[in-house]
Amino acid sequence: MSFTHLDESGAARMVDVTAKAVTARVATAAGRVLVSPEVVALLRGEGVPKGDAIAVARIAGIAGAKRTPDLIPLCHPVALHGVTVDLEVTDEAVEITVTARTADRTGIEMEALTSVAVTGLTVIDMVKAVDPRAVITDVRLLAKSGGKKGDWTR
Questions:
Q1: Is the C-alpha dihedral spanning 152, 18, 13, 75 positive or negative?
Q2: How confident is the prediction along the chain (154 residues), in pLDDT tens digits per residue?
Q3: Cβ–Cβ < 8 Å for 78, 104
Q4: Is residue 111 marked as binding?
C-alpha cells in the first residue's frame, strides 16, 4: 500500500483531486471529555463559572470544522454544507458527536474529527477551573459515506 500524500521521493504533497467526481459526502465522528462528578452536577444544574459550556463548545466545534484546512496541513478546503455538533452530559463525561456534510471532490472526515477535538478542547477550557483533570479521549471516526470508496462504518 502506498500513501497518497507522499510523492515518489517521499516528500509530503497535497493530493490532486481535480479529476474526482463531486459527490454528496457525510462523516460522523465522536469523542468524550471525562470530567469530575462536580462538573457533571454543574453542567446539569447552574452551570460552570465561565458560562454555558455546552453552547460555547457547540459553536467552537462548528468553527473548528470550518478551519480544518488551516490546521491540518494537507487537508483540502471543502465546501461545508452542514455541521451538527451534539453534546450529551453523562454521569462521567461530556459525549461529543459531530456530523459534517458536503458535496465535493474529497472526504469530510477530517472536518468531523477536527470539530470533535475543538469541541472537546473548549469543554476543557470551560470546566478547567472546576476540574483541571478533565481529559479528551476516544476521538474517532464512526462512519462516512460518499465518494468512490462508498460507505464505511466502524
A1: negative
A2: 666 777 777 777 777 787 788 899 999 999 999 999 999 999 999 988 899 999 999 999 999 999 999 999 989 999 999 999 999 999 999 999 999 999 998 889 999 999 999 999 999 999 999 999 999 999 999 999 998 888 999 9
A3: yes
A4: yes
Q: Decide if 70 is catalytic.
A: no
Q: Of 125, 131, 138, 151, which is the active-site residue?
A: 125
Q: Does 38 appear as a known binding residue?
A: no
CA distance 42 to 58: 17
- Asked whether the whole model's pTM tops 0.90, one would answer yes
Helix (H) or strand (E) holding 41: helix 37-44
Which residue is associated with the grid cell 468512490? Answer: 148
Topology of domain 23-145, CATH: Alpha-Beta Plaits (3.30.70)
Asked whether residue 76 is marked as a ligand-binding residue, the answer is yes
